[in-house]
Specification:
alpha+beta; nine-stranded mixed β-sheet; eight-stranded antiparallel barrel; 12 helices; 30% helix; 23% strand
Length: 501
């Protein structure tokens, strides 16, 4: 088996002639919205040329090769890399042959996969080994690795935040008491030096899988922005586990240049690691990120900068090897995105309790398999293909500056509702007050004035508002093309959509 996949790997890495007749649209090497020289915040568009033979051999040498890692683990890793290289070269059929060879020997959803991926030598390629990525690429091959020609791409913007400031404990006693020295932490030099290549390695699988699960209607591009002057407040807290990270991301949204904000649909914010580094915390698992929500409702991947640099203690030892970054970080992004998708479609009850797929007894009766990515695949193909609105509508964005500049203020008047309605604050009206000023009044009877700034797409809340947040106008958009219309859909307040009824 290993000989077969290694042979395919060598073939795929050197030629793309097998792609003749296949329509393939790459989605990760796309140019940024304007020239990098015009946008000083933009890191060069993510690029990386695999040297898979050397990368694989380096990894095998570091961890004792097949003798230490096991035939199945090595074959799975080799097959993933071979399939990815084939798809990068446009050789969809060759990628399919590699994947078929793996699944014919070790079938999808078979318990034999439990024996891979945890050798204890410090490596990490997922558990089961490469299984998530193999399933993702299988979806890509099944759909032909194509994108629809009539849709606008969406953009995942990675934002590298310059610094973080807060109290960082040096001992367990300080952690428990909330004390410690106040520090200012800066972004990893290693990440800054390698941001383009590492980003491509980590996101490439996702850029192929997003269009695959949406009939080619969610082509995904990637950009990396560096905001060196932004500093986020952080805390380190103990609540069953140790949590370390920013307490407020609004400085990032305030600092984003308008052209970047209007060109971005999904986000991944990476901040300087705030994990304590003193001996008391050596080997301790620390939660540093996960899935959040951008104010537009967009998926917001969150992590510290070291997430791309080294393996945290609960995943292995030492820096990531290139092939580990290609395989595992791809898996992590899928996991976090599925949290977002399940939250967007609560009617399918696919995550009523956190990570319910880890308990096989909670799976729907028609779902097959036993592993987390099996659950994802079953959910995507047996439930969410019929979702309304469709998966292709997972497009979010800030309305471009000036979009509402000519809007008649009378169009703002009416009833707005946040769904699901859970209390009287989630329904209200915008009407004209006694002096002709716009005024918001919710069903709880709480009211405050609004000052339009239509050029910026805002209704600015006054001092009567109990929240430090304005209303950001939201335009209707075509769910397939992602293009904004001139019709007002509602407004976002504290990141939640209040739809005009």
């Amino acid at each position: 088996m290993r000989a077969l996949t290694l042979a395919m790997l060598a073939a795929c890495g050197s030629s793309s002639e097998e792609s003749a007749g296949v329509t393939t649209t790459p989605t990760t090497e796309a140019s940024p919205p304007t020239a990098a020289t015009d946008l000083p915040w933009l890191v060069p568009s993510p690029t990386y040329e695999p040297d898979t033979d050397a990368e694989l051999q380096e990894w095998l040498d570091a961890y004792g090769g097949e003798a230490a890692l096991g035939e199945h683990t090595v074959a799975a890793v080799t097959a993933y890399l071979a399939a990815e290289d084939a798809l990068r070269a446009g050789a969809v059929d060759t990628a399919g042959e590699v994947l078929d060879a793996v699944w014919s020997q070790w079938p999808i959803g078979d318990a034999v996969w439990w024996g891979t991926g945890l050798s204890g030598h410090g490596e990490h390629v997922g558990y089961p080994a490469a299984y998530y990525g193999l399933r993702m690429l299988t979806d890509v091959v099944a759909q032909g690795d194509t994108v629809a020609p009539d849709v606008e791409p969406i953009r995942l913007t990675l934002v590298l935040v310059g610094c973080a400031e807060g109290v960082q404990p040096t001992t367990w006693e300080e952690l428990e008491s909330g004390t410690g020295p106040t520090v200012t932490l800066t972004l990893s030099d290693d990440l800054l030096a390698e941001a383009s290549a590492w980003t491509n390695q980590a996101t490439w699988g996702l850029t192929r899988w997003a269009p695959a699960i949406t009939g080619g209607r969610l082509p995904l591009q990637v950009s990396v922005a560096h905001l060196p002057d932004v500093c986020l407040p952080f805390s380190v807290d103990l609540n069953e586990r140790v949590f370390a990270g920013p307490t407020d991301y609004s400085p990032v949204w305030d600092a984003l240049p308008p052209d970047l904000a209007s060109a971005s649909n999904w986000y991944w914010v990476l901040h300087p690691s705030t994990v304590p580094t003193t001996p008391d915390f050596e080997g301790v698992e620390v939660v540093t990120g996960g899935m959040g929500w951008h104010p537009t409702g967009a998926p917001l991947f969150l992590s510290d900068d070291l997430w791309l640099v080294r393996k945290p203690p609960h995943l292995g030892d030492g820096p990531w090897f290139t092939i580990e970054r290609r395989i595992y970080l791809n898996q992590w992004l899928q996991h976090e995105l599925m949290h977002h998708i399940f939250a967007v479609y609560p009617e399918y009850r696919l995550e009523e309790t956190s990570h319910q797929w880890f308990d096989r007894s909670t799976w729907p009766s028609d779902f097959e398999g036993i592993f987390e990515p099996d659950y994802y695949a079953e959910a995507i193909w047996k439930r969410l293909q019929e979702a309304s609105p469709p998966l292709a509508s997972l497009r979010y964005g800030v309305v471009p500056p000036g979009h509402f500049a000519d809007l008649d203020e009378s169009a703002l008047l009416g009833t707005y509702m946040r769904e699901p309605v859970e209390n009287e604050w989630h329904v209200g009206t915008i009407a004209l007050g006694e002096e002709g000023q716009l005024r918001w009044t919710n069903d709880a009877g709480v009211s405050w004035g609004l000052t339009p700034d239509l050029e910026e797409g805002l209704l600015i809340t006054g001092p009567e508002c109990p929240y430090d947040s304005d209303f950001r106008l939201e335009a209707s958009k075509d769910p397939m093309s992602g293009l904004f219309s001139d019709t007002l859909a509602g407004f976002r307040f504290n990141g939640e959509l209040y739809a005009l009824q």
